[in-house]
Here is the input.
Amino acid sequence: MAHKQYFTNDVTVTVDLNKLSDSDVMDDFFPNEFRHNREPGSVADVTKAGPDYTLSLLTTPQFNEFFAGVERLPEGKLSVDRTRLGNTPFFYEGESSVGQYHNVPGNTNVLGSVADTNFVGNAVRADTFHQIVMPEMLGGWLSVIPRAGIRGTTTRARPTTGRCRTA
Here is the structure.
């Protein structure tokens, strides 16, 4: 089930839910879709787009336990488009996000698979990126864009043993 709803000109909700009865149902009954996406995931996203920014809240739950994946429960992101800084030739652009992530190893029923080993089960991650750019046209034909930026990421993980998924 996929749906996109525009609440206003700048607020959109997108939902794509995929709950399958078994790991082979796509291959057996929807071979054309299977060729394009062997392990369909689910997503729910609320996005607000401003004149020079985008704010979004995304969640990607794993409904099909037989597929491996990383759930985002949720992830928030603020992106600032390239914006001129006053009357200077400099522009700012950046992106910051924070999210809670959950590793779902998949129910492979294979001894020694990732489901039977230690792995990072849950993590909270924050990431921020900021840069200043100065686009310049040299000689009327050569575009040069010098940039200086900084990125910072921190993750707080809780390792678990075995399958960490709870029903």
Summary: The helical segments are 25-29, 31-36. The CA atoms of residues 45 and 128 lie 20 Å apart. The chain has two helices and ten strands. Residues 110-118, 163-167 have pLDDT under 50 and may be disordered.
